[in-house]
Design goal:
The complex is a heterodimer of chains A (about 500) and B (about 350).
Chain A (H helix, E strand, L loop, with lengths): L7 E10 L2 E11 L4 E5 L6 H8 L7 E6 L2 E3 L4 H6 L2 E4 L11 H6 L5 E2 L2 E2 L1 H14 L15 H14 L4 E5 L7 H16 L3 E5 L3 H7 L2 E6 L2 E7 L5 H9 L12 H12 L4 E10 L3 E9 L3 E5 L6 H8 L7 E6 L2 E3 L4 H6 L2 E4 L3 H4 L7 H13 L7 H14 L16 H13 L5 E5 L7 H16 L3 E5 L3 H7 L2 E6 L2 E6 L6 H9 L3
Parallel strand pairs in A: 3-10, 3-11, 6-9, 9-10, 15-20, 15-21, 18-19, 19-20
Antiparallel strand pairs in A: 1-2, 1-4, 4-5, 7-8, 11-12, 13-14, 13-16, 16-17, 21-22
Helix pairs in contact in A: 8-18, 13-14, 13-15
Chain B lengths: L1 H8 L3 H17 L7 E3 L2 E3 L1 H24 L7 H16 L11 H24 L5 H20 L4 E2 L7 H4 L1 E2 L2 E2 H18 L3 H10 L1 H6 L4 H27 L1 E2 L8 H11 L11 H21 L6 H16 L1 H17 L1
Antiparallel strand pairs in B: 1-2, 3-6, 4-5
Helix pairs in contact in B: 2-13, 3-8, 3-11, 3-12, 3-13, 4-5, 4-6, 4-11, 5-6, 5-11, 9-11, 12-13, 13-14
Classes of the chains: A alpha/beta (about 500), B mainly alpha (about 350).
Chain lengths: ~500, ~350
């Protein structure tokens, strides 16, 4: 098998975007009749690689060989003509057309100059039967579940004749039985000789379905492995770009001592979450947070960290469970109600969910407090300036003045402005989703120092970070998440990077 | 130099320059443009004409400014003007002797309530049903004229109740009464938005609705009340329109006013992308539009060419507001200066 020629080989692909090297000399091979998973953390270059392959982006250097011949698709359509088809996470079909019309849109069989509906229906049924799916193809697409729509999308690209099928996060909105149904189809297609690229954040699914794994990190090729030769733990280590032996076991000692101290005293509980869950987002979980504690949420990208935070802060409505703040049941159904209950939340997506670029730093800082006070209890401009200046000083926000626009600040300083917005409301619970992402090292350290300070003052902090090292350093307790569920809590001596990884790998 | 620079960055400057340029043009090309006469105790002249005619658009633009600041638009205001005119006309009644059917004050308040309800309808569609603003307000844009026709029984109603004429035809200290109404509404709106947190919340919702929601702002309520307020402004505007001509014509009252109102807001420096808004800018924008219209007539440009002239001026003013365009122009001039 290794001697066989790959159906696709991408060699030394490099792609530079202004300011970022998205891919640097990445190699990728794909063989007939295999399912090949591409794994990596945020910014690893997975989606850029796929976009180069499907003609969305053009590589700056490197070559793509399809069946030995160089290709250079310049649009997704061109790629599809070459036999490279993609089924995206958000299904790009027309929900208001029938299943058959969707499969044959743009290339309907004709008879006497009109559409041959009978033929279309017959061929659609035939195609779907190959995928083990028997449905009424004359019904409109949206009357079927997402899982079936996905299979229809696959049927469509298969009929256009495919050599390579790319499945981009196909399982993210499917339940377990639907995933199994999809996997059956994938295995069937693989056995028929199709080459399949599978992209997912679900670790277990990767092991269930893939034959080979390519790992990327920060736009660089880490390695290509046969799935059965790569233990989960090694995969995680490679995705994070570290060797197991490298891990420092030294968590913040002070923090750990305090954790014991907190646990020893009759710890004052500030947040108690019972059986909170949302179907399709995160499995029901219990969680509690004490005064002065930093609870780290550790997990890989897509493990459900953000979903957990969004559920607690009332952004997404839970469909089961309850939240207690300071021992009292809190009816949290919107960010506003969460704020009123004493919570604050900094989103991981600073740009689109956090900062108001065109408002001044002062306005950005004052917004949440003003929203809590209500429209008519106006905080005078002078008082606003006072609060803003105090925050700028205590968080060391680098801005010429409080009246500069937030868009003029660097990423790290914008992050601090978001923090300041919530600190101004003096919350009892602060949820920070990736506060250290996309900012320079100095700013990262400052933010972490801030988190520790806040917890020393008695605030309950939930800290989410992709960097396990950061989680270990800041946390007094760690909740581990995997595949959209909370799977464990780590305390004391167990709080180190390798035990987080072992927990995620599930003793493999 | 530095003070000029900081001044040029404040948004109000460019509309003011445009207005000044227009007036200056008239100074040279239109004889008697600035002449004011006193007839029957009132001031008369082109300038007064402009003020008298601009009031309805100014009122619409005040409401529209807030709507646009939330990254929305309200194209129903012209039709709501007709609704307001129709409602007040039918309640006052076309009695030739000038006896109103209901007290004039009652009729006016009732008309305003109807228009506020119309605004609430828009607000509900945008904030609760989450329709796109242009589609949501398109409904009343179409239906509003129908409602006005129902009120007036599809006829033009003429009014003879003298006191009602004050709104659109009266003068106080030589200045049209309607301008006082505008000033009052403007002042209240300014205080209400800038001396409370309302303005900041509106801007926050316009700039980043998700972040606004995450910061605990009740974005839905903000949207709802902004459209409601725009309906109320259109109602007041409709009363003045009706009073000016002492008649209500469901077909023509406020026809295409929504476009002028939107234009006034944009000329005033508020971006259609939402965010920072400039109430006084919109007022100047409305003045530019009206001055332009009056100038075109005064200069004697044929009526059928006037839209072209208007379009050209609007285009020029919009370009002037673009910082990118300005820096490019400056660069061209600097280069020429260097080579010369």
């Amino acid at each position: 098998m290794p001697e066989e020629m790959p159906v696709l080989s991408m060699k030394r692909i490099t792609k530079v975007f202004p300011g970022v090297k998205a891919l640097s000399a990445v190699d990728f091979r794909l063989f007939k009749g295999e399912v090949h998973a591409i794994m990596g953390q945020n910014g690893a270059g997975k989606s850029t690689l796929i976009k180069v392959l499907t003609g969305v982006h053009e590589q700056d250097s490197g070559e793509i060989l399809l069946e030995g011949k160089p290709i250079r698709p310049d649009s997704p359509l061109a790629a599809q003509k070459l036999g490279i088809s993609t089924v995206y996470q958000e299904i790009n079909l027309c929900p208001n057309l029938s299943v058959a019309e969707n499969i044959f849109a743009g290339r309907q069989p004709t008879r006497f100059g009109g559409i041959d509906w009978k033929e279309m229906t017959r061929r659609s049924e035939e195609l779907l039967k190959r995928l083990n799916l028997v449905i009424d193809v004359t019904q409109i697409l949206s009357s079927y579940s997402i899982a079936i729509q996905q299979l229809v999308a696959i049927a469509r690209v298969l009929d256009i004749s495919s050599k390579i099928l790319i499945l981009d996060e196909p399982t993210s909105s499917l339940d377990e039985t639907e995933v199994e149904q999809l996997f059956k189809v994938i295995r069937f297609l693989r056995d028929e000789g199709l080459a399949i690229i599978f992209i997912t954040h679900f670790l277990d699914q990767t092991y269930q379905i893939s034959d080979r794994i390519t790992v990327l990190k920060n736009g660089e090729f880490v390695g290509e492995f046969r799935t059965e030769m790569l233990p989960k733990l090694d995969l995680i280590a490679k995705m994070l770009g570290k060797e197991l032996s490298e891990f420092s076991y030294a968590a913040d000692n002070d923090q750990r001592k305090r954790a014991f101290a907190i646990a020893g005293k009759d710890a004052k509980n500030v947040l108690n979450v019972k059986d909170l869950g949302l179907r399709g987002s995160i499995a029901p979980f219990d969680l509690n947070l004490n005064e002065g504690e930093v609870l780290g949420l550790a997990g890989l990208l897509g493990s459900g960290r953000t979903e957990m935070a969004r559920l607690i802060f009332g952004i997404d409505g839970a469909n089961q469970g309850e939240i207690q703040v300071k021992g009292k049941k809190a009816a949290i159904n919107s960010p506003r109600s969460a704020m009123m209950a004493g919570m604050g939340f900094c989103s991981e997506d600073r740009k689109s969910e956090g900062v108001f670029a065109d408002l001044t730093v002062r306005e950005n800082i004052i917004l949440a407090l003003q929203a809590r006070n209500g429209v008519f209890k106006y905080i005078t401009t002078r008082k606003q300036l006072e609060i803003a200046d105090e925050m700028i000083k205590s968080l060391a926000i680098m801005t010429p003045s409080a009246n500069n626009r937030a868009s003029q600040l660097s990423g790290g300083n914008q992050q601090k402005v978001m923090l300041a917005r919530w600190l101004a409301t003096s919350p009892i619970i602060l949820i920070l989703d990736e506060p250290t992402r996309g900012i320079d090292v100095g700013a990262k350290l400052e933010i972490m120092e801030l988190i520790l300070n806040l917890s020393r003052q008695g605030m309950g902090v939930m800290f989410i970070s992709s960097e396990f090292e950061e989680v270990v350093r800041c946390s007094s307790r760690i909740a581990v998440l995997k595949d959209k569920a909370k799977i464990a809590e780590l305390n004391g001596e167990d709080m180190n990077e390798s035990s987080i990884m072992r927990t995620i790998a599930g003793g493999n | 130099m530095t003070s000029w620079r900081s001044l040029s960055r404040t948004k109000i400057v460019w509309p003011l320059i445009a207005l000044g340029a227009l007036l200056l043009l008239n100074l040279f090309f239109t004889p008697h443009f600035f002449r004011l006469e006193i007839k029957q105790g009132h001031l008369y002249g082109n300038l007064i004409d402009i003020l008298k005619n601009v009031a309805p658009i100014m009122l619409l633009s005040i409401g529209m400014t807030l709507v646009i600041a939330t990254h929305g638009i309200d194209i129903s205001v012209g039709s709501v003007v007709a609704v307001s005119a129709g409602a007040v006309a039918i309640l006052i009644g076309g009695d030739l002797a000038g006896h109103p059917k209901y007290p004039i004050a009652v009729a006016m308040i009732a008309a305003l309530l109807v228009c506020t309800a119309a605004g609430m309808w828009n607000g509900m569609l945008v904030s609760r049903v989450r329709m796109q603003p242009i589609i949501a307000t398109l409904i009343l844009f179409v239906a509003g004229r129908g409602i006005a026709m129902v009120f007036t029984n599809a006829m033009v109603i003429w009014l003879y109740a003298k006191p009602f004429a004050i709104l659109g035809q009266g003068y106080v200290l030589g200045i049209p009464f309607s301008i006082y109404i505008v000033a009052f509404v403007l002042l209240l709106t300014f205080i209400f938005t800038r001396r409370t947190a309302v303005g900041m919340f509106i801007e926050a919702v316009g700039i980043n609705p998700t972040a606004a929601r995450f910061s605990g702002i009740n974005a839905k309520n903000i949207l709802f009340w902004v459209y409601t307020f725009s309906g109320l402004c259109a109602g007041i505007s409709g009363l003045i329109v009706c009073s000016t001509v002492m008649s209500a014509d469901g077909n023509n009252a406020g026809n295409l006013y929504e476009l002028d109102a939107i234009l006034a807001v944009v000329l005033g420096g508020t971006s259609l992308n939402g965010g920072k808004f400039y109430l006084f800018g919109s007022i100047v924008g409305a003045l530019i539009i009206q001055t332009l219209t009056t100038s075109i007539y005064a200069i004697g440009i044929p009526a059928d060419v006037s839209p072209v002239v208007k379009a050209f001026v609007v285009w020029a003013v919009c370009l002037m507001q673009s910082e990118r365009f300005r820096t490019r122009i400056v660069r061209v001039f600097v280069r020429k200066g260097l080579s010369a």
